[in-house]
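ok here's 50S ribosome-binding GTPase:
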Amino acid sequence: MLPGRAGDLARLQCLADGIEPVVTVVGKYNHGKSRLLNELIGDDIFAVADRRETVTLSDRVHRGVRWLDAPGLDADAGAQDDSHALQAAWRRSDIRLFVHSAKEGELDAKERSLLAELRTDAGRTKRQTLFVLSQVDQLADETELQTVASAIGAQMPGVELNAVSSTRHRKGVEGAKKLLQERSGIPALLAALDDALARVPGARAHETALLYGEIRAELAQLRAAQRQSLEALRDTQQRQRHDFSRGLKAVIDKVGGDIAAMLDALGEDHAIVPDSAKDAYAITAGKLERAHIQIAYSRACIEIDGFLAGHGVIDLPSEQHTAARSLNTVMIAVMGVSVKFRKDLRRMFCEEPGRQRMQREFGHYYERSGDRQALASLIAQTEAAMAASDKASAALDQLEERA
Ligand SMILES: Nc1nc2c(ncn2[C@@H]2O[C@H](COP(=O)(O)OP(=O)(O)OP(=O)(O)O)[C@@H](O)[C@H]2O)c(=O)[nH]1
Ligand SMILES: [Mg+2]
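and the structure:
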């Protein structure tokens, strides 16, 4: 129902699963993300290589934390799998380690925009990002490190840098050299991570309430808009029907009145006097009478037809079509093609049952006309969309209950 909320819903689903805190890495490829995770866990879990290596997500639970290795982002990362993996990492993680290799110097545009996005997200959801300046052993000395650090500080004011070297840490661990381990920055990063992890339950509670609140509000807004358009459509439907019925009645009144006046003014009725064989080519009073009635009938039909055409009631619905195309009109279906006798004319146009029949049958074909059908189907669609909104609300409640 809310395409723009797909990501938030997927995140809520993750939160509802209630798994251990998830720490992931973000940053460009080959900046030492996988190796950093290995050092933090103290085990060579994730593949490390001197080229683009990680392409899918992989994770490992260690010390009550789910460590999630993710692909690096880069301009040439065209593969769909990568972007799916990145989206999933974004969705699943509580804490992001933004990894940038010190030997690259400043942040590039892509990194800056990603970092800005992470900060915005932190402001909104309270999910935290730690900035990791990796591979610092690649720099010549402390002065160079300061240069890089202040350049990045100028790009991203207020950013706290965790400078680390996975290589140093590994050497320190393998050689049991405490000082080297300390100087690798990994213990300090682990301490910062512990602080961040301690804030995860509170952050999750905040984020959960925020997302449910926002989605509920948006659903309610959508539902209100749907109700409003349904009411407007139904109003239109009723108003149109009312106008049609009233307009048709006026036309019927008019033609009925004309016909009654014409009939009342007539003298002796000759129509029922049968013509004899000798009259075959003669103009008889009976013939004249019948022609007269037929003309009055045609006039009335033309007048009604004009009104119907103005309301889009012309052709019969396709399932009523016959091979004789000229007969496929509503007018002919309801009124027939000829009337020859006074009593028939009176019955059709001047007497109440006849007039009511016209109202009823033209009303029926009016509802079958293209515009009215389109309106009816729009109403049905809106009703279905409202039902879908209600279903979405119920599903959201269910998800919240599960959490
Ligand atoms: N000198 C030095 N090299 C490092 C350090 N960390 C990682 N490397 C090397 O940098 C290369 C890339 O490391 P990875 O951990 O695979 O990099 P990644 O960011 O995971 O790369 P992708 O998986 O492709 O995104 C490997 O050759 C690592 O051995 C470090 O602290 N110092
Ligand atoms: Mg990797």
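+1. The CA atoms of residues 233 and 378 lie 8 Å apart.
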